[in-house]
Design brief:
423 residues, alpha+beta, FAD/NAD(P)-binding domain, Polyamine Oxidase, Chain A, domain 2, 3 domains, 7-stranded mixed β-sheet, 14 helices, 23% strand, globular, binds flavin-adenine dinucleotide
Amino acid sequence: MNPEHDPIIIIGAGMAGLACANWLHRAGRAVLVLDAADAVGGRVRTDVTPEGFRLDRGFQILLTDYPEARRMFDYGALNLKKYRSGAVVRLADGRATTLENPLQQPLAAFTALASPIGTLTDKLLIAKLAAQLQGQAPEALLAQPSETTLAFLRRYGWSEQIINNFFRPFFGGVYLDRELGTASNFFQFVFQQFIKGDAAVPALGMQQLPEQIAARLPASSLRLNTAVAAVLDAGRRVRLASGETLPAAATVVATDGPAATRLLGSDLPAPLTTAARPTTCTYFATAGAAPSLGHKLLHLNALPGALAHNVAFPAEVSAAVVPAGQGLVSVSTHGAHGLTDEALTERLRPELAAWFGPAARQWQHLRTYRIAQALPVYGPGQPAQQPLRLHGTLFRCGDWAAYPSLNAALGTGRQVADILLSQ
Ligand SMILES: Cc1cc2nc3c(=O)[nH]c(=O)nc-3n(C[C@H](O)[C@H](O)[C@H](O)COP(=O)(O)OP(=O)(O)OC[C@H]3O[C@@H](n4cnc5c(N)ncnc54)[C@H](O)[C@@H]3O)c2cc1C
């Protein structure tokens, strides 16, 4: 063991681990990134089917104004494709209504219809919050004291009408939490990010994000299909599942929260919150273009009891994700539903047919992704930044050490690199 020459070992090649490796490597430090999976990205993966569909493992977008994403990515090389700002909302009575720029221009967005979405006061309150958040540092928003988003929305004065018709389906989709129990400081951060930036995806799918970071690292610094079984000597050695032991100058645990708990146990500071929110993404192919009713807009379902919560048509945004002449439908169902893939698909079909027309009954089911631990639960009172240094030579990073977002994964990875580089 020679700490002068041993690499810093990073366990996990998700966005947090890759970000940490990126900044350390840029500063000339030797790193070794280990991941149990067969590719980089962690929760940000894209599969290519034999027919040529590119399917993200769960519907996911990049908000282009995320401070950490702007630091990290070459947006031009990612060939980012943007969703239009807004949504088509399916109301509880089955009517669909289109909202263009609801957070940026609430008065214009909500006036076209005799406002089944909310009251005039509701619209003025959106404009008021947008003005309040304007110019505030994202970090300052995250550092605020918090309550649940639902409590914040009610206290701010919004009606139940707009909460149920807009905030619940829209932010419930961001949080994977339609109860809106997620902390209000995170609500304000996300609200500001939607005002300042675009919702975008790389033309070839979300996995292009981690691939861009990984391409900056020497090939020898990344070992895939390599599960770590234990972290030893406060981060000076790691033992692989294969039994091999590797020496380290320091170890950074950049896994998801539950895996970190298994690796670190009592090394983790209390209180420990590694509960996570599940989601299911069901993909369908359509013969010919998909019948979207709002080009490049997300579709949100305000209907209580529905299983198709959010629907997107990814090929409208990037034609590269489908074989020529085909359309793609991505249907997200948040939370636990207790259904098999087949039963869920059969329950989705009539909902989609009522929403998008009878052809939906014939759409070809492509794949179902069930993501049990999609986002860490982030409730009121949880700090937006937990301690990242656990011992002198043992660190952690990842969204579960901060808040549920790509920005947090990238940011905690950079912060750990900064601590290591400053010593
Ligand atoms: C469906 C879905 C939608 C989302 N939507 C958005 C969105 O729109 N916007 C947004 O900002 N965020 C979104 N997120 C959240 C975002 O993807 C995550 O916050 C982020 O990717 C977390 O990165 P991470 O590096 O912290 O963890 P992970 O991506 O979980 O990476 C951890 C890595 O550790 C590896 N690992 C675990 N255990 C071991 C072990 N013992 N040995 C070796 N390797 C191990 C895993 O294989 C994995 O690669 C979404 C997430 C999901 C799943």
